[in-house]
TrEMBL record:
Keywords: DNA-binding, Phosphoprotein, Transcription, Transcription regulation
Taxonomic lineage: Bacteria, Pseudomonadati, Pseudomonadota, Betaproteobacteria, Neisseriales
Residues spanning the signal sequence: none
InterPro entries in the record: CheY-like_superfamily, NreC/VraR/RcsB-like_REC, Sig_transdc_resp-reg_C-effctor, Sig_transdc_resp-reg_receiver, Tscrpt_reg_LuxR_C, WalR-like
Organism: Amantichitinum ursilacus
Official protein name in the record: Response regulator UvrY
Keyword Electron transport: no
Amino acid sequence: MTAPDHVRILVADSHPIVRLGVADSIHTEPDLKVTGEAASGDEVISLLRKHQYDVILLDIAMPGKNGLDTLHAIRQIEPAPAVLIFSEYPESLYAISMLRAGAKGFISKSDPPAALTGAIRRVASGNHYLSDATLNQLVSQVTLSSDRPMHETLSAREFQIFYRIAIGQDPMQIAKELNLSAKTVSSYRSGILQKMGFGSNADLIRYAIRVGIVK
């Protein structure tokens, strides 16, 4: 089988207008082509079993199987395409967790089309992609201190729950958004507080404000 003459892209986002905007940004690029769209994590996995893609542009927050669970499922499929996280959440907070979970890169929905197409090409070629601002922040952290901030010790799932607690969501809201049971969320919450040495949600929120995760 001959290799395609363009990068095959699957756009996974629950909002049709976002998928349309991505396709519109890419259609003038001769080496890039949107060959599939999905509105949920389950649709992503279903399409991967039928078609081949080079890059998946994946939103973190989708109904049903959320972005993190979808990312884990994608990695079980061979050949696994490169996953570029496409999100409205702050890159500086989520990027490292997503890379640890197996993503090739992270790009914000607020970035210009040229950044998006450049990021797609980079991960399609086997490289990782992060914005210059996030790379500079990571270099500064390594240069200035050997100690990792406490929130960077959390797993990708733990950070999802940590962030939602920090912005004031209750266990039922978090459970619904992440497609988990409230009991599972409470269990994660207890583990997060213990790992970070906090006695309450209030301690966690104060920390999140102090380090700039929330305002």
